[in-house]
Design a protein that fits this description.
Structural class: mainly alpha
Number of strands: 0
Largest sheet: none
Distance between the termini: 47 Å
Mean pLDDT: 76
Number of helices: 3
Helix content: 55-70%
Amino acid sequence: MRRTFSQVVASLVVIALVAPAASAAAQDAARPISSTTSVMAPVSINTAITRAVTANQAANQGPIAPKVKARGIRMQGGGKGAMISGIIYTVVGLAGTVYMIKYMKDMQKATETTPSRIR
């Protein structure tokens, strides 16, 4: 029963993943290639760069990406206050750990000295 359920779930997952891809492939196959759609053969990277630069210059679009001006380092905050609070929190955490260990040792000693009445 369990194996059948897992097979059904696995089959449904596979179908859910494959169905959209199959639908898209069917739509692409049904669509005729028009005269405006151009299929380009693979070219080298240098040829593609040259083609893009000439197309950009022909369109007179200016630079492809704007230059980003470097900004100075902004104040991030923190500093001395964050360092001091971090040290204080660390000390408080260590003190709490030491107290808890001491308390646990005292409880263990108390249970060892108390006679057990379990039969």
